[in-house]
From TrEMBL:
Listed GO MF terms: cholesterol binding
UniProt organism field: Knipowitschia caucasica (Caucasian dwarf goby)
Composition bias type Acidic residues, residue spans: 274-286
Region (Disordered) location: 1-29, 121-153, 184-291, 613-638
Residue ranges, compositional bias (Low complexity): 1-15
PROSITE patterns tied to this protein: OSBP (PS01013), PH_DOMAIN (PS50003)
Keyword check for Transport: yes
Protein name, entry field: Oxysterol-binding protein
Basic and acidic residues bias spans: 614-632
GO biological process, one term: lipid transport
């Protein structure tokens, strides 16, 4: 093992040379129950925090590393299972089980890994744009006297904190300077309600204010001209008389819009266009398992003969008989089928309880959105297509803080019927190439909203099809100043030549930069031999301490079991959870670009089993979309979404809501 010093000093401290140079050497790594322990050559890069491993020392310069693990925020601890064994568990949940040759080598590796983890964790919490720590809005008094330390390790650990403090002060200075500059250039003399663009709607204000122009980090400015802001549905006062809520004392990671500098007060939201005309949805979307008929099999085989392994299916026209009788935009709305659990999130007493509730809602939302395991494909939304709906949730169905005696019986300041909350949803196809959908839902009474964008990428995989859901969503708890960023799993259509079925797979994350809690969720695909289908497991950790506060396991369309750190177990059966029917306007009252009215002829033909007519109507919609695209290309104009505003940062699509309905 290459290391300048083979022995740790007092209190586990290593000489500076050992910290600044890569630590490398052979270790035994546990691979799997069949192969057991295998000798591998490991290299720890202290600057990047990466633990690489190779098959051997000789292959290091000739071959790429076989694997890598980030030690930033990782837990390093010894294990009693084998002599000189220790584990390295990353913040994402991946674990290396390692074994040294003797106790001295074990101590050197564990000490180096722990020092590297602590040093880089302190730096990344504040310096990384993806995971910034909460910033202070004022300077804190510091002691004028105190003991001075010359210990190199102590100074090394304190340096990133001092640097991050200076960086945050500089950032606050620039923000205040920019805000003052904008305030001095307000030109509109008439006061109007306004809301900062580049973010989801914020509830209420004590007084109106003048329109404020906003410039995002990319230099694209936008003004508040949306109808909802003129209607006063959601208002915010960023003027100098506003107070700063707890939410503004936190910075979130760079991919979600910041919360506004305003005082949020509960105020009745005005009714939006067509909202009072909604009726309870009676449409049934249960799809039958289809065994592929002979004529359908010949179509599929002909299609497969033209495809190659890994080919992108975005532009491939698929046969009509595999279509599900709803649009992809409506499928996103069906993820809100447990709206009562969604609203219960903000009632959690502590950040830990709220994160666990976010996880519970997240895992129970897929069974209704996917309608079980039937492998049918929703309609591809056309550019400009929208979908609107809402839910009425009785107040007694919304769970309050745990260990409370009784649920809340009234709703303060809501414009809805007594003892009920209203959740509103809007989705829009904002891009055709690539196919990106934006969706947003909110409940003003509970000060909770979600803003998300998803880019669907389909790939041919031989006898199956994989669909990646690229993008992310942000859940805002405005009352607590918290923002939860989440991603979505991949979907796979298996056995497309026999009896198709669908499963979810991949690793996703849910993280809250303000509280430090994060959840690592794994959707397990079925192994080739044996194993169960639709399995999912999850783990909630506190990012700063690494402590596990909750574990979950089960089936995303079946029974889920949640176990807290105290040993308390909570079981949720997704098949027995009450599904709330969404409310939607009748077909004749919908606009021509709303999903159900747009696809009504295709849906009617599919219900009647007339595939030829369904194909004809589907082809008509696709041709109309191509014609509109050619006209825009000839006129050199681009498509402007109706409800969302496009922002591009680091090649990621972001959309912010303009108004609901």
């Amino acid at each position: 093992m290459s290391c300048p010093s083979a022995r740790a000093g007092p209190a586990g401290r290593m000489p500076r040379a050992a910290r600044d140079q890569p630590l490398e050497g052979p270790l035994s790594k546990y691979t799997n129950p069949l192969r057991g322990w295998k000798k591998r050559f490991f290299v720890l890069e202290p600057d990047t925090g990466q633990l690489w491993y190779y098959l051997s020392a000789a292959s290091r310069g000739q071959q790429a590393p076989r694997g890598a693990l980030s030690v930033v925020g990782a837990r390093v601890c010894s294990s009693p299972d084998h002599p000189f064994m220790f584990t390295v568990q990353s913040s994402s949940g991946d674990t290396y089980k390692l074994r040294a040759q003797d106790a001295q080598e074990q101590e050197v590796w564990m000490t180096q890994l722990q020092l590297c983890s602590r040093r880089l964790s302190d730096s990344s919490k504040t310096l990384s744009p993806e995971a910034q720590s909460p910033a202070h809005t004022s300077l804190e008094p510091q002691p004028k006297r105190g003991p001075l330390s010359g210990d190199q390790d102590v100074l090394l650990f304190k340096t990133p904190s001092s640097l991050s403090c200076l960086s945050q002060c500089l950032s606050l200075f620039h923000q205040n300077l920019h805000r003052a500059s904008l305030h001095n250039h307000i030109q509109s003399p008439s006061p109007q309600p306004c809301s900062p663009p580049g973010r989801a709607a914020v509830l209420g204000q004590p007084k109106p204010c003048a329109p404020l122009q906003h410039r995002d980090p990319e230099g694209v400015s936008s003004a508040n001209h949306s109808p909802a802001l003129r209607q006063g549905s959601f208002r915010a006062d960023p003027g100098p008389g506003c107070s700063t809520p707890p939410s503004d004392k936190h910075q979130r990671n760079s991919t979600a819009p910041p919360l506004a500098n305003c005082r949020t007060t509960r105020e009745p939201a005005q009714s939006t266009e067509g909202a009072e005309e909604e009726v309870t949805d009676t449409e049934e979307h249960e799809e039958e398992h289809l065994g592929v008929l002979d004529e359908q099999r010949s179509v599929i085989i002909h299609l497969l003969s033209q495809l190659k392994q890994g080919m992108d299916l975005t532009r491939v026209v698929l046969p009509t008989f595999i279509l599900e009788k709803r649009s992809l935009l409506e499928m996103y709305a069906d993820f809100l089928c447990h709206a009562d659990m969604f609203l219960s999130i903000t009632s959690g007493r502590s950040p830990e309880e709220r994160m666990v509730r976010v996880l519970e809602y997240y895992l129970t939302s897929f069974h209704e959105g996917r309608k079980g395991a039937v492998a049918k494909k929703p309609y591809n939304p056309v550019l400009g297509e929208t979908f609107h709906c809402s839910w009425r949730v009785p107040a007694e169905r919304v769970k309050g803080p745990r260990h409370t005696a009784a649920p809340r019986q009234s709703v303060e300041g809501s414009g809805s019927p007594a003892q009920s909350y209203r959740v509103r949803f809007v989705a829009e196809q904002v891009s055709h190439h690539p196919p990106v959908s934006g969706f947003y839902c909110e409940c003003p009474e509970k000060k909770i909203c979600v803003n998300a964008h998803v880019w669907t990428k389909s790939k041919f995989m031989g006898v199956s099809v994989g669909v990646s859901m690229v993008g992310e969503g942000v859940l805002y708890l405005l009352e607590h100043g918290e923002q939860y960023v989440f991603t979505l799993p991949c979907a796979y259509a298996r056995s497309i030549l026999t009896v198709p079925w669908v499963e979810l797979g991949g690793k996703v994350t849910i993280s809250c930069a303000q509280t430090g809690y994060q959840a690592a969720v794994t959707f397990h695909t079925k192994p080739f031999y044996g194993g169960k289908t639709h399995r999912v497991s999850a783990e909630v950790r506190h990012g700063h301490t690494g402590a596990v506060v909750c574990r979950a396991q089960g089936e995303w369309n079946g029974v889920l079991e949640f176990t807290s750190s105290s040993g308390e177990t909570r079981v949720l059966d997704t098949q027995r959870l009450p599904v709330r029917r969404k409310k939607i306007r009748p077909l004749e009252q919908q606009s021509p670009h709303e999903s159900r009215r747009l696809w009504q002829h295709v849906t009617e033909a599919l219900k009647a089993g007339n595939m030829e007519q369904a194909t004809e109507h589907k082809h008509h919609l696709e041709e109309r979309q191509r014609s509109d695209e050619r006209q825009r290309a000839a006129a050199k104009t681009s498509w402007t979404p109706k409800h969302f505003i496009k922002q591009v940062q680091k090649h990621i699509w972001h959309f912010t809501i303009g108004f609901v309905y």
